[in-house]
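User: Run a structure prediction on this.
Assistant: Running it now.
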Amino acid sequence: MKTAEFLHVLDREGRLLAAAAEEAGTDAVVPSCPGWRVRDLLGHTGAVHEWAAAFVADGHNSPRPIGDPPELDGAELVAWYRDSHRRLVETLAGAPADVECWTFHPAPQASPSPLAFWTRRQAHETAVHRFDAERARGGTPTPIGGEFAVDGIDELLRGFHARSRSRVRASEPRVLRVRATGTAEGADAVWTVRLSDGPPVTVRDASAAADAELSGPADELYLALWNRVPVPGVTGDGSLAALWRETSAIV
């Protein structure tokens, strides 16, 4: 997907998130985020939007902490979220293509520039939390496009969990296959994840025999790997599916 497409998704998903939060009310429980209410969801996502926008707008070249959300609630908190989301979209839309700033994924080939990185990352951040807001509201969640879901699985496996901070570790070498079916291209999207006592190493192929496979339609698998819904299909050693569920939360 191109940066402009991610920007379009980010814009849409943030608007949907705000609308769902407004309908649910800020005291509503978020079933997919244990311990959170909608106010926590809005505060977290809005603070991340402001954090990301600052890297691009100010050209920060080193990591900075995420700030605290304001002490607001109800309609004022929803309005603050909408404003933080709008500023992020405007910052990314107006940034030069060659902007230089800090990023944190070790796979630059997937996001060839800082602008591409932050637009993609915030699109997926917002899509997952939009799902959370819609779960809090109730009713049928907005569908996630298959191409976007495949990209999000790739970002999660080859981006987040390639970092030293990933807690997905195994006491002995194991191989986990991830297979997204029903893609726009017609063929399955497949990843091989090698687990060890270090960070997982993932490649986009099926070149090795696997101890277990997690599979399902791309949109469902995307949410499952973010621990929002159960994994649609598990074959082989079910303990590896449990390992993912227990250790893959992003910290």
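The mean pLDDT is 94.
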